[in-house]
Amino acid sequence: MPNTLSVLCVHGVGHGDLDASLQPTWREAITANLKRWQPDLDVDCQFFRYDDLFDHAPLDPVVYGKALAEMLASGVIHGIGDLFGATRGILDVPDQVRWTAGMVAQWASEPDLRGRLRQRLTKAMKDRPYSLVCAHSLGSLLCYDTFQRDDTTIAGKAFLTFGSQIGNPCVRDCFGGRIAPIEKARRWYHLFNRDDHVLTARIKVDAANFSEVLTEFDKAGDILNHDPIFYFNHENTHTRVWPDVAGGKTSQRVSRAFTRIDRAMAPAREAKPAAPDRRALLIGINDYPDPANRLEGCVNDVFLMSAVLQERGFDASEIRIVLNDRATTSNLMERLHWLLDHVPDGGERVLFYSGHGAQMPSYSAFGEVDRLDECLVPYDFDWNPQHAIRDKQFVEFYSQLPYESRFVAIFDCCHSGGLTREGGQKVRGITPPDDIRHRAMEWDAGISRWETRELPDRGRTQDKAKYRLGRGEHLRGIVGRNQKTVFGHLGPFKPVIYEACQEAQLSYEYRDGSTSYGAFTYSLAKVIRHAEAQKQHLTFRQLATRAARELDTLKFKQTPNLDGPRRVIDRRIPWAGPKGRRA
Question: pTM of the predicted model, to two decimals?
Fold first, then answer.
């Protein structure tokens, strides 16, 4: 009897069921790659058909444009304009991207459609003993949606995703706000090409059965680089995926060899075994390029916080600082990876930022300003998204953290615009130039005056038409009572966030003798040191409350804002106990 391996193939966006060339090209590529490792293997490729489930909304750009608009208005997935990179508006991108965005929007905005797709795929998986599921693009979304909710359907089988949008933040709400492992799968391989421009994204999953395989290619004449055959035939797919799937003595030896290499490289690549239990990233920017925006106390704040953390048990080697002209957007992103990648259970992470904050008017998929994004202001900030640290980017770093880790973000800035007020006190918020301000204004002919334009309400329950930095509003409200039952996890990780002031207030600098500090940072450090002297433990809430009292004593009209999970903010701060002992 020949050795048979059965493969379920799930195509990507639109027309896949009608594409006469799709099945033979997939079958030829998959069969050839498997037989290279086991020549006597009989490969049986079956194809999952699902286009008809989209028939209630024909393959029409107008229909999909409507789906995008409904998705944005619902608040389920906001910011899909970011899917198009530097382009503005859904009509400015190539047809395949536009169609993909539309079908993804329809899939994401229609729970009943997702339910019918899950039901059909589950039946297909039960009807035949597949050993491998190959899912491309939109097909990977519906497969992951099915397997995440019921991993018995993929138990003991290999799962291969490529050209996938699973990791894109704009669809994460459909997965409960978190990309979780598929524990019962024998293996999950995710092929990633950073030059694939069809909404693809990397996936961060910490699981023994998950591997991301870099499959970079640049197909001549194809600006999208989304071709499934190029993924199948990539050298890294050939050496990392097909031997494991094919089985047989030769392929098993190769697969075991790469497994040993992975294990040997893991400490160097991920630094997990040697990773310190505590890390802190401290950022301070005084010397912005524009003299009008320069501050005085931010660098002092960084050294003050570093001293306080070291007094509380942090080792100097566990703290990195970034100051002034070195605090560019790219450098800050690199340091954030150092801080928040591969955090172990029980790990403690602290992010401290002292500098300017800003509000950026941001565009929807249709080229309309429809919200304000709060952001941090790096040294090279120029009012373009490419040179800012925005809410969505920040959420991407922390949403996958282990639930048992602790991440505290402290922002000594405000986002209300900066002016010198009250006898020279400096405000840590930057005022936008007139062309940026114009995006969120309109002329009222009736009273002959410029007014702030009312931005559309996208369904958020607070901070209308605004993303508060660090809040991850696009991930809020998705954790229901049955979250654990439906998705097998508790939703995105949520950090504890301290802000120097309330939304309508300003964050000021304070001069202690001849030395300038942020008023909030100075108060925070004073409270922590006083608790140490009194041998007291502080909770997150107590720290905010006592810092507010200290600010009031200093006669600053700013009240620190605390945000975080209720079950956490009333716990003791691990690094704020007497002599740095764990609480």
Answer: 0.76
